[in-house]
Amino acid sequence: xxxxxxxxxxxxxxxxxxxxxxxxxxxxxxxxxxxxxxxxxxxxxxxxxxxxxxxxxxxxxxxxxxxxxxxxxxxxxxxxxxxxxxxxxxxxxxxxxxxxxxxxxxxxxxxxxxxxxxxxxxxxxxxxxxxxxxxxxxxxxxxxxxxxxxxxxxxxxxxxxxxxxxxxxxxxxxxxxxxxxxxxxxxxxxxxxxxxxxxxxxxxxxxxxxxxxxxxxxxxxxxxxxxxxxxxxxxxxxxxxxxxxxxxxxxxxxxxxxxxxxxxxxxxxxxxxxxxxxxxxxxxxxxxxxxxxxxxxxxxxxxxxxxxxxxxxxxxxxxxxxxxxxxxxxxxxxxxxxxxxxxxxxxxxxxxxxxxxxxxxxxxxxxxxxxxxxxxxxxxxxxxxxxxxxxxxxxxxxxxxxxxxxxxxxxxxxxxxxxxxxxxxxxxxxxxxxxxxxxxxxxxxxxxxxxxxxxxxxxxxxxxxxxxxxxxxxxxxxxxxxxxxxxxxxxxxxxxxxxxxxxxxxxxxxxxxxxxxxxxxxxxxxxxxxxxxxxxxxxxxxxxxxxxxxxxxxxxxxxxxxxxxxxxxxxxxxxxxxxxxxxxxxxxxxxxxxxxxxxxxxxxxxxxxxxxxxxxxxxxxxxxxxxxxxxxxxxxxxxxxxxxxxxxxxxxxxxxxxxxxxxxxxxxxxxxxxxxxxxxxxxxxxxxxxxxxxxxxxxxxxxxxxxxxxxxxxxxxxxxxxxxxxxxxxxxxxxxxxxxxxxxxxxxxxxxxxxxxxxxxxxxxxxxxxxxxxxxxxxxxxxxxxxxxxxxxxxxxxxxxxxxxxxxxxxxxxxxxxxxxxxxxxxxxxxxxxxxxxxxxxxxxxxxxxxxxxxxxxxxxxxxxxxxxxxxxxxxxxxxxxxxxxxxxxxx
Length: 892
Fold this sequence. Notes:
30 helices; six-stranded mixed barrel; 17% strand; single chain; alpha/beta; seven-stranded mixed β-sheet
């Protein structure tokens, strides 16, 4: 429910001239705008004044528009060294990169409210380890909680095997943490029952990019700006990566760039592009592949492909097969690039295949996708048709989750081939890659043991373990969940929640004592009886994974409470500095893992601080897109730590991979696959490493693989899943004002008032047929949610498809329903509904099938369906104090 109204503070203190200034970056979206933290003690009452010599900004107040003014949401009071301090956190007005005019998104602009303050709604931060005793979570000491966790962990591994110890964790929440976690899970425990927050399996999010040789984050923000034509699939950067749009893409559109959006929903960014000569391809969920290949077909039929680029940079069959030798190829990208379903003999062979597929003909693709044929034709012309003088448009392609989570393997294979066709991938303004969601804070501390996974594919190949299916089948005996909303973020959410309850609280073996031995006896009896123990590590008590199911809770420290490193969407690595004390006994995740690992008997976890972890992790970045090892080398030459060196770089940081010149200076990498870049002729010297991706593509030859993308590998699931009778597609995604699950936003009164409940956008035609108006409370239900029962069952190749699994009895159907507030709008196309993608209590993912892409192992999250009916009126229908029902496609 909404708060009655939000009343902001009217007075905010200015930092005095001698306030400490600390650099950091935003904690939220992939863009990672640079920020400055101004900190000064509350004691003494010394605040800044309105005159330039009286405040830390050196400005006379009031300031001009976009000057360093302070909004109420940019001020907070925190503890620093145990004493109350003011903090003002604003975008860095001196930023040379990223947010170069010192602006911010709504999300980042409020980040000061993230800081723990017992006088604000953040008062419910986890402050002490807890254990569920007598059904209640009760505070215990760190030593006791870690001891119990270690003992039950060792028991599960010894009695039930390493795969019985499951780890579900974030992939992005700072390099020091992800390195420690993956070192523990993958190198020390060596479990295949491991994955990250946004996938059931530890696999590439974009298999087609990997197969083609494209890095997800090869482009710089400048490349998106420099394109003549920018195709954006599955996202509106204004809604989700605001500063990337307003400071990089929007000025380019105003300067003549043609932006093509392929999404089923028109929001402000899409509308702005249309208003300025761009294009909206209003695709029906799951049919992106047809539109992409129809565009490619038009280009090929007209001979508009970038022939010179293709001749120089595309593999023939010998190129794509080179270097592998004989035998089974278990590495996913190796078998996909040499499997007849995908592999081609080169561009001409791929073209023949493309032209032979009737479903890629313009009218056929238009009919199934719902995109007007004239718009598909125009998109092809905008992307590839040469100008009268013979010059080609510089085209870049940006994709994100709405695209690659609709038909994971097929869509990413198709868009890679289209990118190759138009010459995108390795030149300024001509790039292909992801826009990004969260920031890039992952460094692997161990390799994934795919040989331990029971999940298989045709030809004796192994696929990463599907942790959801494995857990539901009862094989996970200890689930260690770190910083993620596991249940609501996965598909078939309500079925998953029910099974978690059966395995944990529904098991008869519950802790009824504070005695160590009795606790361990109880937990051992639970796992031996087929139940499961849950350890949850987070900053808040998350419902239901922590609040309802966890046996042990570890309180974590987060942004601003420790020194951390992380990269953004153009691989810019920076130090996110500590500027206040973590609440209570909360500790950073690297520390929690190090203590637990030691009690488990593992070696190599004796770090004293986060810099120690970062310096160890640095050598494991060598050869990767985040290679910052030479920054450590430079730091040690100067008698500094790695963190100290990054602290000197401020909000600029440096773009990885990082190279050191002979004179000791450091050079960043503007873009990967940069075919125009000239590396030193004498090669890498000293400790430098030259990754192939600096100037070539990530294949055996350094050229691109152009691959087929058969609709038939996915169409059986799409045909089965598409709406029947009164159903509509129900897809989901982000809204500008909220970040992820709203873990911070639900503690911000303004945002709570703006989005008090989950909501569903529905087209005016669909709403009228069902008697639904904006502000109505509606029920969305699906009585045919498909889910895999267990490990893929089958022998023949066709057995692994959705149809094959249905025939073999490995798919069960369940029911799901959620409620939402209706928002009737022209902005979503007929036949499609759109919801917040990760709402705690009413998760849209409950309505989508828990069936992984059988080739990649990823979910197709955007493929939900539901019936919708009015159940009453919400409190917001006739009030203007809370939710707004204004369309989101308004531009000026």
